[in-house]
Amino acid sequence: MSTLVATSAPEARSSQGFRVAMLLPGALVTLLLILFALGLVLFLAFRGNDGSLLGAGFTVANFVTVVSDPLYWTVTLRSLIIAALVTLATVVTAYPVAYYLAFHAGRRRGLLLFLVTLPFWTSYLLRVFAWKIVLAYNGVLNSALIESGIWSEPTLAFLNTPAAVVVTLAHAYAPFAILPIYVALDTIPKSLIEAASDLGARPFTSFRRIVLPNSMPGVLAAALVVFVPTVGDYVTPALVGGPASTMIGTLIQAQFGKANDWPFGAALSVAVMLVILCVVLVARFADRRFGSRT
């Protein structure tokens, strides 16, 4: 017995040391890259702009401007609406795909999952430019409509619109929504659905009472994964959206770029982070409600 205790103690220490060694790189990256970056943004947000990199003095004037200027409220609200539409479109289209992968794909599941992750192999900018080609005045969509006889001449109704931003972002973030929903659906015991069927439940009833409630954590995770980055996106509105599609990320990028006002850009970033934090807290509360029900 004493021999077992003596040999288990070094093994426990070795296992603990291995865990620390494996966690250390990730902890350092988190500390240096994420926390340091957030701390720098918070520091800059309370600085005054004097043209230097770190600003001068401490002030709350940046936040006063953010709160008092209706321009930033309008653009922030537009960003939230576009992000919400993108999230809705992405989740609604991703759920059937994830459902098929979880319950009906069979032996083709591995291949289909590979095809779902295939867009990750290409650059995000290339996918945005592809949609720009599709929606352009002489693009694929206009050409197809003219060739089919639906329209007689090209139209500018597709590109440089909020709808173009929503479609492009929904396509770009579709894999990020499919995968968490698929994981949630795949963990649902098939025996529950079979038992419901044996008890006379129709397929829609089984879906409504068993599948959908148990998959809601995955749906909420997918919604957050899509919503959070799309609120601050500025590349897609700049490429396929017009002035009516300007989002808060575009204004933040302009402050750090052409305007050379890093403190005000940091204050805008902090304001957006606070808004996103409120959304995350609401989603977490909803997740707990669904978790308690299921």
From TrEMBL:
<feature type="transmembrane region" description="Helical">
    <location>
        <begin position="53"/>
        <end position="73"/>
    </location>
</feature>
<feature type="transmembrane region" description="Helical">
    <location>
        <begin position="79"/>
        <end position="103"/>
    </location>
</feature>
<keyword id="KW-0813">Transport</keyword>
<keyword id="KW-1003">Cell membrane</keyword>
<dbReference type="GO" id="GO:0005886">
    <property type="term" value="C:plasma membrane"/>
</dbReference>
<feature type="transmembrane region" description="Helical">
    <location>
        <begin position="163"/>
        <end position="185"/>
    </location>
</feature>
<protein>
    <submittedName>
        <fullName>ABC transporter permease</fullName>
    </submittedName>
</protein>
<feature type="transmembrane region" description="Helical">
    <location>
        <begin position="206"/>
        <end position="228"/>
    </location>
</feature>
<dbReference type="InterPro" id="IPR000515">
    <property type="entry name" value="MetI-like"/>
</dbReference>
<comment type="similarity">
    <text>Belongs to the binding-protein-dependent transport system permease family. CysTW subfamily.</text>
</comment>
<feature type="transmembrane region" description="Helical">
    <location>
        <begin position="110"/>
        <end position="130"/>
    </location>
</feature>
<keyword id="KW-0812">Transmembrane</keyword>
<keyword id="KW-1133">Transmembrane helix</keyword>
<feature type="domain" description="ABC transmembrane type-1">
    <location>
        <begin position="76"/>
        <end position="283"/>
    </location>
</feature>
<keyword id="KW-0472">Membrane</keyword>
<dbReference type="GO" id="GO:0055085">
    <property type="term" value="P:transmembrane transport"/>
</dbReference>
<feature type="transmembrane region" description="Helical">
    <location>
        <begin position="264"/>
        <end position="286"/>
    </location>
</feature>
<feature type="transmembrane region" description="Helical">
    <location>
        <begin position="20"/>
        <end position="46"/>
    </location>
</feature>
<dbReference type="InterPro" id="IPR035906">
    <property type="entry name" value="MetI-like_sf"/>
</dbReference>
<dbReference type="Pfam" id="PF00528">
    <property type="entry name" value="BPD_transp_1"/>
</dbReference>
